[in-house]
Specification:
The protein is globular and about 90 Å long. About 55% of the residues lie in helices and about 10% in strands. The chain has three domains: about 1-75; about 105-245, Butyryl-CoA Dehydrogenase, subunit A, domain 2 (Beta Barrel), CATH 2.40.110.10; about 250-575, Up-down Bundle (Butyryl-CoA Dehydrogenase, subunit A, domain 3). Strands 3, 4, 5, 7, 8 and 11 form a six-stranded mixed β-sheet that branches. Strands 6-10-9 form a three-stranded antiparallel β-sheet, with no helix packed on it. It has helices at about 5-10, 25-50, 60-70, 80-90, 95-100, 250-280, 300-335, 340-370, 380-395, 400-420, 430-435, 445-470, 475-485, 485-510, 515-535, 540-545, 550-565, 570-575, 580-585, 595-605, 615-625; strands spanning about 1-5, 55, 110, 130, 135-140, 150, 160-170, 175-185, 195-200, 215, 220-225, 235, 240. The chain is α/β, with parallel strands linked by helices and about 625 residues long. It is built from 21 helices and 13 strands. Bound molecules: ligand LSRMNBYM and flavin-adenine dinucleotide. Flavin-adenine dinucleotide binds next to β3, α9 and α10. Ligand LSRMNBYM binds near residues 111, 121, 122 and 123.
Length: about 625
């Protein structure tokens, strides 16, 4: 059958709710979501096997983005689709993949790493996998409460299998963390297997359609061949064959951090669409007292809140793709046995994941606030987008922890620069900074990019100097590092911002040569706005570390305000161009037709509290108090 995926999925009635899911109980929400998740999974499987064929391109992405509308929250199979399969594809041997990656597999899996006691510091994970050469099996065990797995999406009720991160022991020697495939529920009855204690962790700030779970093993046995063996092996006699790089096991986290950047761009485009369209419909106060009330989008302060969201969505889209291509390149190199580019990719992924999630959640919240009181309604969909987005600041590597990973990388290059050793081209500016080869400030995108590089150099130097000072004062390295950690994270953040500015500007300039002149003008305005916005936000740092002057900052401010005025006529067109369907946006404030107040009233009418003219609580609780003395 030939289909257009959007239309096909949008026409499956069971996927769309009559009652908004906020009115359902915790249990009903999950059950409703899981019903829909398996309809979607069936479509994905049919696409995969070619049973249905598609007439539009980017199909998995289309299905992925439509999911936001279907679930309003999150697909309980997100980790099954997004992490379980991809980890097997990346880390299992060819034979294991042939056995496990069957499109009609009975396995519904999840990625089980975090424990009650350890999330960030994964070397501290306590679950053990001990090789028993007499039976050719691993014994998975949870030695104490803090070793219970806690958080994995879909683990509570949905998954019957999982990839478990555990400390590998062979003949009493610990070989560190490895990944194992374990069945946890019977495929037919879905009952937990003997030796498995599994359940759901309870309601959260968001992600409430996903059954995040806990899991404990009581000496649970799995075949030796269930360890993921592409990069590392345990042989039948217990011989351990080391991987070519000891962090290859962390590869799934690296890949997810890269894909998250694009996902966050998409969340930003949803928030921007809602807030900009609403701001074009909403009128509140005249600007001049004798004029009619104006669209709130005409307030320059409102443009300041919203246009940076549109621009940031483009930034993360562009940088997400750039990182995706880098990941592809580095993975191909690793395949050939060359690990040389892995540290750089890891350092970039860490700081970009950290900053993209932090920016996205801050900007989504800014969009919500920009919609005034109505942004606080669940029916605006902005609270759900915020709850979804802010989780990304923590999961897949907590914000500060990831910035500190990138800081290790920066400090290494600063040390080379300080010792006058050769530097790679992309860090040549460290040497310029040391030699005080400062460029004269230019009030242009290129000038701002240079200025941001000076901030990276200046902040890395400050952190490095503090680190060295702590060491000279007799501190051990780890303690000295901890004492410098505020400055180290500042340096990483600056590095991420300089990368975002540079990549976005260069890619936009290139793209501009391939599109119509009028489109090129708008794209460059957005890119320039992004750079000006952050130069003004960070003007204190620029004053400290670059040659910018007060007059330059005033000129930047004027240009920024000019850009807001230039973008204003195209603002609605720019968000329409994100091309997000109403069914996916799920927002009374952001629908294409602008019927904001009508939709708000229609949604309110769905409230169960409006079912009876007089709610029975009146008779039970209110009347006995208010009428007591009047009888
Ligand atoms: C990295 C850690 C913080 C520290 O690890 P260690 O203690 O082992 O490190 P050391 O200190 O010993 O060594 C550091 C050393 O190692 C290098 N390193 C570290 N990691 C890597 C790596 N991955 N690759 C390469 N190198 C690495 C590092 O550079 C150092 O090198 P030097 O010594 O030379 O300096 C670690 O503990 C850690 O990672 N902690 C974080 C834990 C974490 O991230 N947990 C995640 C759990 S899973 C999870 O949270 C899932 C969440 C839900 C995900 C939702 C998915 C959404 C998917 C969206 C998909 C969108 C799809 C869109 C599709 C479409 O659009 O089409
Ligand atoms: C919605 C959601 C879904 C998730 N899904 C999964 C999943 O599918 N599978 C899975 O395995 N896990 C999952 N997780 C768990 C997630 O990966 C962890 O919560 C995350 O890695 C952070 O670890 P933590 O909770 O231990 O935080 P902690 O590390 O305890 O962080 C607490 C604080 O301590 C600070 N801190 C910790 N270490 C350091 C350090 N070295 N230096 C400086 N500061 C530090 C942090 O900055 C933070 O401020 C999920 C979490 C959420 C919220």
């Amino acid at each position: 059958m030939m289909i257009h995926t959007n239309n096909y999925i949008l026409n499956i009635k069971e996927l769309w709710d009559d009652v908004p899911e906020e009115y359902l109980s915790h249990k009903e929400r999950y059950e409703n979501a899981i019903k829909k998740a398996f309809i979607v999974l069936k479509v994905l499987r049919q696409l995969h096997t070619g049973n249905i064929q598609i007439t539009d391109h980017r199909t998995p992405t289309n299905v992925y983005s439509i999911q936001d509308g279907i679930f309003r929250n999150v697909n309980p199979l997100l980790i099954h689709i997004g992490l379980f399969w991809s980890t097997i594809a990346a880390q299992a041997s060819t034979e294991q993949q042939a056995e496990w990656l069957q499109p009609d597999s009975s396995m519904i899996g999840t990625y089980v790493q975090t424990e009650l006691g350890h999330g960030s510091f994964i070397r501290g994970i306590e679950t053990t996998a001990t090789y028993d050469s007499t039976t050719d099996e691993f014994i998975l065990h949870t030695p104490r409460l803090s070793a219970y797995k806690w958080w994995p999406g879909g683990l509570g009720n949905t998954a019957n299998a999982c990839l478990v991160m555990a400390q590998l022991y062979i003949n009493g020697t610990c070989h560190g963390l490895h990944i194992f495939l374990a069945q946890i529920r019977d495929f037919d009855t879905h009952k937990p297997l003997p030796g498995i204690k599994v359940g759901e962790i309870g309601p959260k700030m968001g992600f409430n359609t996903a059954d995040n779970g806990f899991l404990g093993f009581d000496n649970h046995r799995i075949p030796r061949t269930n360890m993921l063996m592409k990069n590392v092996q345990v042989l039948r006699d217990g011989t351990y064959v080391k991987p070519k790089h000891d962090k290859l096991t962390y590869g799934s986290m690296l890949l997810t951090r890269v894909t998250l950047i694009s996902d966050l761009a998409y969340q930003l485009s949803k928030a921007a669409t809602i807030a900009v369209r609403y701001s074009a419909v909403r009128r509140q106060s005249p600007i001049k007292s004798n004029e009619p009330e104006r669209q709130i989008l005409d307030f320059v302060s409102q443009q300041h809140k919203l246009f940076i969201t549109i621009a940031s969505s483009h930034v993360y889209r562009v940088v997400g793709l750039w990182m995706w291509n880098s990941h592809k390149r580095v993975t191909a190199d690793i395949h050939e046995g060359n690990m040389g580019q892995l540290p750089e990719l890891h350092a970039l992924a860490c700081c970009l994941k950290a900053i993209s999630s932090r920016d996205a959640s801050a900007l989504v919240e800014q969009c919500r606030l920009a919609c005034g009181g109505h942004g606080y309604m669940m029916a605006s969909n902005l609270p759900q987008i915020y709850a979804y987005t802010t989780a990304a600041v923590t999961y897949e590597g907590e914000y500060t922890v990831l910035l500190l990973q990138t800081a290790r990388y920066l400090v290494k290059f600063w040390r080379l620069a300080a010792e006058h050793k050769p530097l790679p081209q992309n860090f040549a500016y460290f040497e310029d900074y040391i030699k005080k080869n400062f460029e004269q400030w230019r009030n242009s995108p290129e000038g701002i990019i240079e200025g941001f590089k000076a901030i990276v150099a200046g902040k890395t130097k400050a952190a490095y100097d503090t680190l060295q000072c702590n060491l000279r004062n007799g501190r051990e390295f780890e303690e000295a590092w901890n004492m410098a950690s505020v400055q180290l994270t500042n340096a990483s953040e600056a590095y991420a911002r300089s990368l975002l500015c540079e990549v976005f500007w260069k890619e936009t300039v290139q793209l501009s040569t391939k599109v119509s002149k009028s489109l090129a003008i708008v794209l460059e305005q957005l890119a320039e706005l992004y750079l000006m916005y952050w130069a003004l936000e960070k003007h204190g740092d620029l004053l400290l570390y670059s040659t910018i002057s007060r007059n330059d900052i005033e000129a930047l401010q004027s240009r920024y305000e000019e850009l807001l005025a230039l973008i204003r006529p195209n603002a609605v067109g720019l968000v329409d161009a994100f091309d997000i369907r109403d069914e996916v946006l799920c927002s009374t404030l952001g629908a294409y037709d602008g019927r904001v107040y009508e939709r708000m009233m229609e949604e309110a009418s769905k409230s169960p509290l409006n079912e009876d003219v007089v709610n029975e609580s009146f008779h039970k609780y209110i009347r006995p108090v208010t009428m007591k003395n009047k009888l």
